[in-house]
Amino acid sequence: MHMDSNAVDGGHLRAFIERIEKLEEEKRAIADDIKDVYAEAKGTGFDPKVMRKIVSIRRLDKHKRQEEEEILDLYLSALGME
């Protein structure tokens, strides 16, 4: 799609771009904060890899989580790993 540059509202576009850039900066700062919390937890003896898995599981709704757990159990059983 080709647009005539005269048809683009530069000020409006710039405002969107600047908002996105600000949010990206905030996202990086939050990601750094999350890494710091995992590092702190590791320093007190917790396993960050397992904690990440728990966070991922808790993000799922109950039905989806149960479904995944049942499939995991089925697969582990098929591999003789129960």
UniProtKB/TrEMBL annotation:
UniProt KW Magnesium keyword: no
Domain GapR-like DNA-binding stretches: 11-80
Keyword Amino-acid biosynthesis belongs to the record: no
Domain of life: Bacteria
Coiled-coil spans in chain: 13-40
Family: Belongs to the UPF0335 family.
UniProt keyword list: Coiled coil
Protein name: UPF0335 protein D1O30_09230
NCBIfam families: PRK13694.1
GO molecular function: DNA binding
